[in-house]
Amino acid sequence: MKGLRTVVIGAVIACAAVVAPTAVVPPAVAVPATAAVRSDAAVEASWSALPVPAAAPPANVSDLAARGPGEAWATGTEQAADGPRPLLHRWDGKAWSRDTTFPGTDAPGRLGRVQFVGKETWIFRTRDGAGEILRRSAGGWSTVPLPQTLWTYQDFTAVPGAAWVVGEDSTGLKVLRYDGATWTTQPTPDGVLFLMGITARTADDAWAWADTTNGTTVLHWDGTAWRDAKVPLPSNSNVHTILLEPHGRMTIGGSQYTDGVGRTYLMAWNGHAWRTTYPPLGDTHTAAMVRGPDRALWLPVRSDRAFQSKYARVDGRRVTFSYGPERTNAIDVKPRALASTGAGLLSFGTVEIYGSKPNLMSERWGDRP
User: Fold this and answer.
1) What CA–CA distance (Å, rounded) separates 348 from 337?
2) For the chain, how many structural domains are there in total?
3) What 3-state class would DSSP assign to 5?
4) Which of 23, 196, 220, 307 shows its CA 20 to 30 Å from the CA of 321?
5) Distance in angstroms (rounded) separating the CA atoms of residues 222 and 243
6) Structure confidence by residue, pLDDT tens digits, 67-112
C-alpha cells in the first residue's frame, strides 16, 4: 500500500502538459484595464534574470515565500556524495545570498515549505528521516522536533498559534498539530486515505485537500474538527493548491481528466458561492500559482522555448503569457515557485545549460531593486 501511495503522489506532482498558445505577449505582459492595479510601469514590466549563488548540481527547488519587497526565502536541495543536502537562499530586496547559519546545514536532508509566523520564519525540514521545524527569530535559529518519525511528509503549514504536518507512518494517515507547546494527532473524517496538501488562515481556519474513497475532497478545520467542506469539485479531478485570500475568499487550482486527457480548472469562492472556470492552460500544474501585485493569478507553465521560461497571467477569463530572459545554451529553464514581493514578482527554479546538470535560477518581474 505504501508503494502504491508513493506512485500516486509522484504522478500527481509530476503532471504537467504543453500550454495552449493563447494571447502570447513577449516580453511585456498585457494588463487589462479591469485589473485592480494599473500603471504604465506595470504594463511595460518584463522579466529579468537575477544572479543566484551556485549549488552542487543537480539542484532542486522546494518552495519560495516572500514577506515583502525586502525579504524572501527559497528552499531546496543540492547533491552531495552522501545524498541531498539542504539549500536555503535569502532575498534582501537587492540580491540573493545563501544562508548556511541554520543548525545542521551540512547534514543530509531537505528543506521544504516556508511560512511566516508573526516576525518569525518557519521552514519544514527532514533529516535522517525525521521531521522538524526550523524557526528563525531575532535571536537566531532554533528547532522544533516532530513527536514521531513518518514514512512520508506530504505538507506543512503554520500560522500564529498553530502548525500542521501531514504525512503517513506504518498505521496510515497522520495529521500532527502543534499549538506552540505540544503536539497532538488529529482524526480525519471516515474514508480519507491521505492528505496531499494543507494551508491555513488562522489557528481555527485550516484547509486540506485529500484523497478519499470517493475521490478528491477538500477538508476544513474549524477549531473543533476536520470536516468535509462540501466543495463541488469538478468530476474526475484533483487539487494542486488552495490560495486563501483576504475577506474569506479563496481560489482552488487543479486538473480535471476526461478520457485520460487533463485540463486545468480554477475555482473561486467569493464568500457566497463557487465559480469554476477552465482557462486555456492545458494540464498545467498549478501548485506554484500566486496572486500577483496586479491582482491577477500568475503561474509558471511549460515553455515552448528551451532557452526561456514562460509564465501565465490569468485575469478572469483572459489569459496572457510572458517569457523570461533568453539564456545562452539553455536546454531547460524551469521556474518552480513564485512569490509576490510588493509591486513585483519573484520566481525561483532551475536551469540546465547544455552539457551540465540543473542548477539554480531566479527571475524578477515588475519593480527593480
Assistant:
1) 5
2) 1
3) helix
4) 196
5) 17
6) 999 999 999 999 998 899 999 999 999 999 999 999 999 999 999 9
